[in-house]
Amino acid sequence: GNLERKIVASHFEKNKENNVLLAMSFGKDSLLSYGLAKEIGLNISLIFDNDTQNYEKRAQHHRRRIIKQFIRKETPITAFTDNIDCILESKSIKKPLNDLENLNGALSFILEFFPFAYIFKAKYFLFGNEKNLDDYYLNEDHAISYPSFDQTTFYAKKLNTWLAPLTNDKIHITSVIEPLYNLAEMKILYSRYPRLLQYIMSCYPPDKANSRWCH
Fold first, then answer.
1. What pLDDT, in 10s, does the model give residues 93-145?
2. 181-211: per-residue pLDDT in tens?
């Protein structure tokens, strides 16, 4: 109700314009977002989502090594365990829900980030939404399809619409790389922030793989 919303919103009254939250996955999007945000003088708090899904678990031994190095040379990272999608793997569900977890990824992130926004007094959630995620194709039924709709500009606007009444318009979602296509991102990383390339992780390696460059 309205009272509950006002109580929640009051927690974010002191959030500062210069404070931002950024989820670090160590892909090109989050690394470039970090480099740009730092260069323009934003006060960045980095969050690492320790996802418990199987394909994420395969990547963790590489990520742990990268995270230790990143913290030592760059800045601290706050980690949390994300098991929100475990409900989809429940044995009580008779029919498997294939890929359903991908439908609400961005919304789940926002809800999980709320405590960190309060702790770090952050005004903005930085998403790694890049321009090519706004591109679509026609599927076999001639319907418009997006590779990842929850990372499009349109969905980000919806999230901001949902956030506004909940936080009294005190927290917003944005992306500092939104105008860039992925090839431009790699060019900027290579030419402007080459030190960050040592942390990049290209994919989710297959079981027992000994490389983070499987693609």
1. 666 555 555 555 677 778 888 888 888 989 999 988 889 889 988 988 888 88
2. 989 999 999 999 999 999 998 766 665 566 6
- CA dist., res. 24 & res. 212, Å (int): 16
Residue 47: Cβ within 10 Å count: 20
Bridge partners of 19, per DSSP, are 43
Asked if 27 and 130 count as a contact pair (C-beta separation under 8 A), the reply is: no
Structure tokens at 1: 């109700």
Tokens (6 digits) for 60: 């963790």
Can you list the pairs that 145-153 forms with residues at least 24 positions away whose Cβ atoms lie under 8 Å?
148/102, 148/105, 150/102, 150/103, 150/104, 150/105, 150/106, 150/107, 151/105, 151/106, 151/127, 153/129, 153/178
Residues 6 or more apart whose CB falls under 8 angstroms from that of 145 comprise: 136, 137, 138, 139
Helix, strand, coil percent content, the chain, rounded in steps of 5: 50, 15, 35
Degrees, nearest 5: CA angle 79-105-140: 145
